[in-house]
């Protein structure tokens, strides 16, 4: 394929559901046009950045490259009306000086020391879900039955939401991130995205009211009653905080857990290696995150005329940072298309980099390591029980169906 055909993967949700196509295309771009202009009638123009070092350099400079007004790739109609169409303001939409102030609100909850306090509880939950796996009688859909629910339970409990609301939050998350997937989208109408956002808005508006009247010791109360710059947090910022944590806070981890198991089943020698040496679980989960790269892209906009790899980029133009491509960069990773549970070093950028480095990185690692530390020793035999399907998306995604057949100890 030529470079323009290759660049089409960034505007085609189906490409992210076809790993072979996507990685073949981005390999062409890394080799022949690593800074490539993309023009598509549905999207405002942008430059696709596919090499690891360029992604890192842009992410590192949050003064030259800012998130607003275009934090992620979306259809032209949405981008032109973004302030009116998306009635919240989340961390991913913020730049300095606001971003560090608002990020600080929940920072202590997600720092290593804060996450370590959850270690025993997460280990208990990991055991609960592996025990549940055993109850399926040797066959299940690992994504839908296990991977989608375990990190959901963790993050919703952290927020302090009632357990009866967890399925609703899962459905809304899948409608939001799966808006381009016929199996997951609410409907095919142009209004579907806004309908989902409105449901989030209404739910979290009630939560703010409740936590301000009846504060507890959960993260939802911390956010609702935060006073950045000495004043109570605005409703749009609080709801944006909730939506970010209640969606990306579990969906990305679910994708890594399920996509990681799929990789282990595609590379049975790596499953045997991990089973023989459980001490590899931490590096194995890092490799799963690199391999899946659940967040497909974020965008940055230049605040001044500049260049990337010698290609001029004008002030106001936007770049798309392709994390899956960066994580297969031949200049950084030895045998990047090989799944290696012992890969070290592993300089993946699946959690982003710089000022917007993923807030939940340490929690995701703890969850992933706990589940696989519990799962691998208890599996005696495991194989795919049908075709694996990946989400059609432009932003966040991974497997949506992972049928397995297994025997447990």
Automatic annotation (TrEMBL):
* GO molecular function list: cholest-4-en-3-one 26-monooxygenase activity; heme binding; iron ion binding; steroid hydroxylase activity
Mind telling me which Pfam families this protein's record contains?
Answer: p450
Q: Does the keyword Iron apply?
A: yes
Q: Which CDD domains match?
A: CYP142-like (cd11033)
User: Which InterPro entries does the record associate with it?
Assistant: Cyt_P450 (IPR001128), Cyt_P450_B (IPR002397), Cyt_P450_CS (IPR017972), Cyt_P450_sf (IPR036396)
Keyword Membrane assigned: no
UniProt keywords (A-Z) are: Heme, Iron, Metal-binding, Monooxygenase, Oxidoreductase
Q: Name one GO biological process term.
A: cholesterol catabolic process
Question: What is the similarity comment for this entry?
Answer: Belongs to the cytochrome P450 family.
The record's section on Gene3D superfamilies has: Cytochrome P450
What's the protein name? Cytochrome P450
The record's PANTHER family line, in alphabetical order, gives: BIOTIN BIOSYNTHESIS CYTOCHROME P450, P450, PUTATIVE (EUROFUNG)-RELATED
């Amino acid at each position: 394929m030529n470079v323009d055909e290759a660049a089409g993967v960034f505007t085609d949700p189906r490409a992210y559901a076809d790993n072979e196509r996507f990685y073949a295309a981005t390999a062409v771009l890394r080799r022949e046009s690593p800074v490539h202009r993309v023009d598509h009638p549905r999207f405002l123009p942008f430059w696709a950045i596919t090499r690891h070092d360029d992604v890192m350099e842009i992410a590192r400079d949050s003064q030259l490259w800012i998130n607003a007004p275009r934090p992620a790739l979306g259809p032209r109609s949405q981008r032109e009306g973004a302030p009116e169409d998306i009635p919240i303001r989340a961390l991913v939409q913020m730049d300095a000086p606001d971003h560090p102030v608002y990020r600080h609100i929940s920072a202590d909850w997600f720092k290593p020391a804060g996450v370590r306090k959850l270690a025993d509880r997460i280990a208990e939950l990991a055991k609960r879900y592996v025990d549940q796996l055993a109850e399926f009688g040797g066959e299940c859909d690992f994504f839908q039955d296990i991977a989608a629910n375990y990190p959901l339970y963790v993050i919703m409990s952290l927020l302090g939401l009632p357990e009866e609301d967890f399925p609703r939050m899962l459905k809304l998350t899948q409608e939001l991130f799966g808006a381009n997937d016929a199996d997951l989208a609410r409907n095919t109408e142009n209004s579907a995205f806004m309908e989902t956002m409105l449901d989030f808005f209404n739910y979290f508006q009630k939560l703010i009211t409740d936590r301000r009247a009846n504060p507890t010791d959960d993260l939802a109360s911390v956010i609702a009653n935060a006073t950045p710059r000495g004043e109570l947090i605005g409703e749009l910022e609080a709801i944006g905080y909730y939506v970010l944590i209640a969606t990306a806070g579990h969906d990305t981890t679910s994708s890594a857990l399920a996509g990681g198991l799929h990789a282990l089943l595609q590379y049975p020698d790596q499953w045997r290696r991990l089973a023989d040496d459980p001490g590899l679980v931490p590096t194995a989960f890092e490799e799963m995150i690199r391999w899946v790269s659940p967040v497909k892209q974020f965008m940055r906009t230049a605040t001044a005329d500049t260049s990337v790899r010698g290609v001029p980029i004008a002030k106001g133009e936007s770049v798309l940072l392709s994390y899956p491509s960066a994580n297969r960069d031949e200049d950084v990773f030895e045998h990047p298309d090989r799944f290696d549970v012992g890969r070290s070093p592993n300089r993946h950028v699946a959690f982003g980099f710089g000022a917007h480095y993923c807030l939940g990185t340490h929690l995701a690692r703890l969850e992933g390591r706990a589940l696989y530390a519990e799962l691998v020793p208890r599996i005696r035999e495991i194989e795919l029980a049908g075709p694996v399907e990946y989400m059609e998306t432009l932003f966040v995604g991974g497997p949506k169906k992972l049928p397995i057949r297994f025997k447990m100890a």
